[in-house]
Amino acid sequence: MFAATEAPLLAVENLRLTFSSGTKTIYALRGVDLTLQRGEILALVGESGSGKSVTGLSLLGLHGKNAALKGRIGFDGRDLSALSDEEMRAYRGKRIAMIFQEPMTALNPVFTVGFQLGEVLALHRSLTGDAAKKAATELLGKVGIPEPELRLKSYPFQLSGGMRQRVLIAMALAAEPEILVADEPTTALDVTIQSQILRLLREINEREHMAMIFITHDLGIVAKLAHRVAVMYAGTIVETGKVADIFENPKHPYTQALLASVHDAPRGQKLFAIPGSPPPLTALDEGCAFAPRCNFAEARCRQAIIPQTDGDRLWRCIRA
Ligand SMILES: Nc1ncnc2c1ncn2[C@@H]1O[C@H](COP(=O)(O)OP(=O)(O)O)[C@@H](O)[C@H]1O
Ligand code: SF4
Ligand SMILES: [Mg+2]
């Protein structure tokens, strides 16, 4: 499906993101390393506040003005973290697109679906008039919207949540990006619609060979959708590997606890039931941030953790 031997499409190295608000500094990303191959679906998973969204936003230069970004975002021979706003515009939406959890906020309520798709097609593919209309109709068809030509005239409020998310996916696909970052795109949808959208994303991935970073807190989705997974905790990736390997044999105690909490969780209950909570991101040292919640913590966990590797697996823990 995708060749892991090729140079990666995206190589994120030691990404650090800090927010300054008043006298407080929040270390939201504390050295994130990621790679993404062409055609690969990488799931980014972790508890709320672990830095999943800001990782996605950083890739598109959308981390905001009160944030300082350091490290490298290698894409197509360039470091995206070093680009100006102006330069970033050539990538954002065009070569790396993003979809979000709540499609209503990402769509403009006062314009029709056709108008909004038309804007993206004009901006990124220089299509106007009949050519744009044809492309917009095709795109809506591609994302499984019935009677696409009629739907072009609909306003967002006339569509269900699932249909709105399909429209957003169509808008993201309009520019034919190489990477789609999807930030919890199904969390607000009911279970049936959720699996339809996941199936759609998987089809798009297979048909268009489009790489995806799929952000979720739901390990069930990871298992269904992704090829590889990166587990985030307190602003770092604590474990990465192929989905099957991680589910069968998690190496990091946090990943183990996550998987155990899913198995234990009665239906419909909150997924993450690990005792304790993640540390505040205001003052963390180099030691393992999971130590206060870890059953295996010992003195040397307080020193900088050198990640261990085995083939394409990596885990940031002292334990073998
Ligand atoms: N604009 C911001 N200003 C200050 N802190 C922020 C901002 N955005 C995110 N953060 C902080 O960064 C951390 C990571 O947030 P986020 O990436 O949204 O987590 P996740 O998506 O994993 O739930 C959180 O502690 C959050 O409070
Ligand atoms: S480094 Fe130590 S505290 Fe951290 S997860 Fe591993 S054993 Fe637990
Ligand atoms: Mg988030």
Structural class: alpha/beta
Helix content: 25-40%
Number of helices: 11
Cα separation of the termini: 31 Å
Using DSSP, what is the number of strands? Answer: 12
Question: Order of strands across the biggest sheet?
Answer: 6-7-8-3-9-10-12-11
What is the architecture of one domain at the second tier of CATH?
3-Layer(aba) Sandwich
CATH topology-level name of one domain: Rossmann fold
The low-confidence parts are none
User: Which small molecules are bound?
Assistant: adenosine-5'-diphosphate, iron/sulfur cluster, magnesium ion
Chain-averaged pLDDT: 92
The amount of beta strand, in percent, is 15-25%
Describe this entry's structure for a reader.
With 320 residues, the protein is of the alpha/beta class. It has a domain at 10-95 and 177-286: P-loop containing nucleotide triphosphate hydrolases (Rossmann fold, 3-Layer(aba) Sandwich), CATH 3.40.50. The chain contains eleven helices and twelve strands. The strands form two sheets. Strands 6-7-8-3-9-10-12-11 form an eight-stranded mixed beta sheet, with helices on both faces. Strands 2-1-4-5 form a four-stranded antiparallel beta sheet, covered by helices on one side. A hairpin with a 2-residue loop joins strand 1 and strand 2 (24-36). The two termini are 31 Å apart. The structure holds adenosine-5'-diphosphate, iron/sulfur cluster and magnesium ion (MG). Magnesium ion is lined by residues 52-53, 183.
Sequence-ordered SSE layout with sheet pairings:
Blueprint: E1 10-21, E2 24-36, E3 41-45, H1 52-59, E4 67-75, E5 78-79, H2 85-88, E6 96-99, H3 103-106, H4 113-125, H5 129-142, H6 148-151, H7 161-174, E7 179-183, H8 191-208, E8 211-216, H9 219-225, E9 228-233, E10 236-242, H10 243-248, H11 253-264, E11 308-310, E12 313-315
Parallel strand pairs: 3-8, 3-9, 6-7, 7-8
Antiparallel strand pairs: 1-2, 1-4, 4-5, 9-10, 10-12, 11-12
Helix pairs in contact: 4-5, 4-7, 5-7
